[in-house]
Design goal:
Blueprint lengths: L13 H6 L17 E4 L6 H9 L3 E4 L11 H15 L2 H4 L6 H23 L1
Parallel strand pairs: 1-2
């Protein structure tokens, strides 16, 4: 994971994020290191990033600027926005006060464990 300042544009971290995707175990054979497709909102709509994704063998599914809503990406985006809202339920993560990245990442890990625990309790 790479932490950046809040004033950085998200699209600048797209390729470093893809480079850090770990191997995914699954079917017998060589493990996968990249997704089949990347779903993104209009902020990532640029020919440069579409081209770079295709070069890596990743199909870009990016909403286009100037086109009406209704692409269907909102269904997937809701999951991400909801998860971020859950993480913001922890005051310590809402505004980053820690100067050290490792401490912030530790709190992020604790928060994800607590969120997962709460959901598992609902299932039982």
């Amino acid at each position: 994971m790479s932490l950046t300042g809040g004033n950085r544009n998200d699209v600048t971290q797209l390729l470093p994020l893809l480079d850090k995707v770990p191997a995914v175990a699954g079917v017998v054979g060589r493990p996968r290191h990249r997704p089949d497709a990347l779903l993104a909102d209009r902020g990532y709509d640029h020919d440069k990033y579409r081209r770079l994704l295709r070069q890596r063998g990743i199909r870009p599914v990016i909403a286009e600027r100037g086109v009406e809503h209704g692409s269907g990406l909102g269904v997937f985006r809701y999951v991400v926005e909801r998860t971020i809202a859950w993480l913001h339920g922890f005051r310590r993560l809402r505004i980053r006060w820690e100067r050290r990245d490792d401490i912030h990442e530790a709190f992020l890990g604790i928060a994800t464990c607590l969120i997962t625990h709460r959901h598992v309790q609902r299932l039982c």
